[in-house]
Protein: Teneurin-like YD-shell domain-containing protein
Organism: Selenomonas ruminantium subsp. lactilytica
Amino acid sequence: MGNSYTAEFDLMGNLRRECSPKENASEEQSRYWRYAYDGMDNPIHTESPLGVVYAKEYDGESRLTKEIHPEAENGEGISYDYDTDGRKIRTHYPDGGVERSFYDAEGNLIKKVTPNHYDPSTDDGAGTTYTYDAGNRRTSVTNEAGDLLEVSRYDAKGRCVYHQDAGQLEASREGMVYATTYRYDLAGNKLEERKAVSEKDGAIQYSLRRWTYDIHNNITEEKTWLTLQSETSASGLTCTICNTYDKQNRLIRVTDNLGAEVKYTYNSIGRRTSEERKVNAEETQLIKYLYDETGRLTDRAEKLNQKRKGTWWAHTRYAYDANSNITEIQFPNGSRIQRDYDAMDRLTSETVTDHISGQKNTTNFAYDKAGNIIRITDECGRNEQFTYNLMDQRTQEITSEGRKQKLVYDKEGNITERQLPYAMSYRYQYDNAGRLTAVIDPAGNELETVSYDRAGRRIKLETAGGSGAVYAYTAAGWQTRIETKGGASQSYNYDAQGNVTGICDGNGNETSYVLDSWGRITEIHKADGSKENYAYDFAGNITEAVDGNGNIRKYAYDDNNQLKSITYPDGSEEKYLYGIDGNLSKFQDRNGIVNEYQWNVYGSMTERKAGDLRNVYEYAPNGQLTAAISSGMDYRYSYDKDGLLTAKKASGRTLLAYTYDELGRKTSQTDITGRKVNYKFDQSNNLVDICNEVDQSIVRFDRDADGAIEKIPHANGMWQDIAYDADKNITSLTVATPDKLLAQNTYRYDGNGQRIEKNELTGKTLYTYDSLNRLAQAEYPTYTERFTYDHAGNRLTRTAKDIEEQYVYDVNNRLMQRSINGQAENYQYDQSGNLLQDANNTYEYDDFRRTSKVTTNTGNTQINRYDAEGLRYEMEENGKLVQFIFNENKEVITEQEGANITRLIRNSDLWAMESEPEKTWYHYASDEQGSTIFITDKTGNVKNCYTYDAFGNTIESEEQIPNRYKYTGQQLDPITQQYYLRARFYNPAIARFTQEDEYHGDGLNLYAYCANNPVDYYDPSGYYKNPAGEMIGGISKREFDEYLGDVEKCTGRKIGAEQRDKLYEFLRTHDVSCPVDDATYEAIKDDFDKRATKKRLRSEWSEKNNEEWPTYEKNNIGNNKIKAKGKHNYDLHHIIPKKYGGPNEWWNMIPAASPEQHQGGIHRAGSIYRKLFPEG
């Protein structure tokens, strides 16, 4: 390729200087790496082409005694001491830490004392100890606390035949010894691994895995049993993977026992040239690779089959400089990434060019002498600065807007303090093993304390406010039970590979799962006797879903492994088509309406159109949303240099403007009227006051140590008191004015945390649930209503007072008929499942599947208009115009015809309303579900009051002022008597939505509201149910939902119900271990990169997958990195923000090496999750 590398050596053969191919090819004077040696030929001086000096010192025995840090001014660095046998016994770090090592006579390490435990007075301390057998093979590991962590035994050939890990040792007791045993063939290949994982009826149960090999010691078969085994058995369900190799021992074919198949081809130097994967019986995914003369990947081509366009290839191409650094990536859609590097091969700039707008954004990186990033800038004003100590730990971060934070570490690199503006500081405590045990907030509250077993598993959690949970595990580390302090619990059963096979809730209701050989759920057996079935293709995609009534929904996928069609039980079909970049380009619904999409280089939507509708989205070069344009509304967005939204405009007018403090918290919001609302926070970072423009309080929040709201005083004298149990369930709610007690409610809960009793001034309400936790009966003070459901989750009957209702559904779970005491009401739908007509209304929809018009039988009309944010910004009610301005999906301004403007004061709930025409304030009080129960005027007089049944029907209502916000705080349309829940409309009279859920990940019933449990859940988005009233880390579940809603809105992707539930449960019951914020993100990454862990994991990946590690270029750009619209980057795998984007290479590796750092690192500051993760 014409590249040349030059090197010069001295007479002793020592390399004196070298010049890289890139420097040799430079038109400027070549720059060299230069080396100097002492008299013993030890390298003592290395100078980089940029003048960075790396110095080392050696003793008379040529042992390295010191490595001087490149940034040191006085020769500081890492120094080493040796014993008389030349073994390293002490490592002295620049921060004063000392690591001490002890050895036996054979030179085996028998004890290591880490810096936090080293005592210079004794030259010793608590440490990890090791023992060995006569063959110098390690037989045990014991930690600083004296806990035995590992035990190993070996055969005569030195192969490990018996091993106990920390989890097995924790579970072992007299007569019940948990261990893993291994068998080998004569060549030393592992034949069997039998691991003790759990027990049943007093007998230990094992997981089992076996391997077979060919004569070249290649694995030809790997068999994994999913059925738990005894000490000698080998029976039951297995997953079998077979490998075939060519004459050069290269893997060319992989199959499983279900018919999946992957084929590989190679070139003459062993580079993989193609991958062919069976997606299903009809579709095969084909990827080809091309390389240059040096073996570097230059082209990745993926075959795409489009019926109308034939076969074509999506090419991703790579270019390199003379040093093999990637300098350009060309994506199939024409977008590009270009990179420059310095003479030390460090990335100095990256330019992203969008194929649609042609915009370019260049991000520049600067480094200190040690290679740490000290500055990041771009063309959009980004200018982030970082400083480090001589341990290469990031100690300060200054954002582009000058916001600062400092980090303090202990001698083992654990973050012990995070210092923020306003003298705020979060502190962190750790146990002897370096595990986070406590988080202390700036106010001194010990937010969470955590206890661990010897295996490092969390066994107990307690919060500052008294909440907490205990956890139990199998020997394999599978969580078998969680029980909260309040008594709610859940237990789990597993197969031999750790897949959940059964769940028992706190009320004893059991759900069991039947799995295939890959651990995928094929049957769900529910507590009521119903069953759901699922089938999969070779790639693991769901191809068939059968609900409890036997209705079948089918899914088909293309050769690129993307969903191409859904066939519903009635035979109607939706179709999907994708562009060359893999993004959705066309969608045809069951009515035949086609939606078309375009996306930019960041994966953000730039256009959506269908019929006469067209939404256009514009972005800054760095990917921030700058405009969202629809036919009726043109929004423009402005941001500060940290990416925080500062203004939202339309038609030249500022609709909303925001200011932020040095922590990035929103401190004020100014609306279109010019009126300002200010926000104030306490030392624990909780919102404690919402004030008017002259800082007079509108509503205040007094909180407990967990951040949960205990008292809400309003400016008009009304107040609310809230008390909680140990699980943060609301146990009492009081609402009063200075002159009158308005509400005094108490509550009780069952073993699932479900509300079973509500006592009010007007009487008691009792709730009863069926075995699927659906509301079966609500016994109100004056009447009782009962419900039954079919096996698909459809309501079959409702009885109340003298009324009996019966419901009939079709195979798509659409309500077709409702009979009230024998009087039938019929319902009609279009092919896409949109309700066209019911007993009272006729409905019309636009081509984006949004309700555009409703006409009642009495002649009333409602017309809805939507903006490019997907929200209803305008409506006409019988010709009268009503307009809305939204902040984070919530209405903050309502303007009716004649400039009748109302301003809404809200965050998680609606607290107050200012009426412009009346020049007065009204204050709202909500119940445990966030439903409006009282509205009082500025003097505390009650103007409106409401009561609701469980599903949101208004039982009683007294209104002196107009109000739209009622059940769960959502907007009730007076003409239709339905609730606007953003994505869809909810009809409480039948407890169903008027349209199918666009997202299919929240259960197979696409119409039922909150899985028929409206007491414990609510749905503000129209997409999924959310637990109501709970608190997570000091914020309400509503704020948690806002955060996930932001992710979904910004990425255009829906988060799966299982993911949501797991994340919610984790946050409700766990601490985010080892918090890592933006300031330490890169530091941890750099440290990780420098360690051998990265190399080892790369090797393991290659061995297990027979392919190269998925690098930044392959895995980070495109579908995995989604640029948020105006806020953050989101990594969909984690459903959390990532400010710097990638590389995913590190995020995929770090869990294997440091799972706690991984968990902490992915949750960092920037949005509502500041409260979810206050430590980061």
User: Anything to note?
Assistant: The chain has a mean pLDDT of 88. The chain has ten helices and 99 strands.
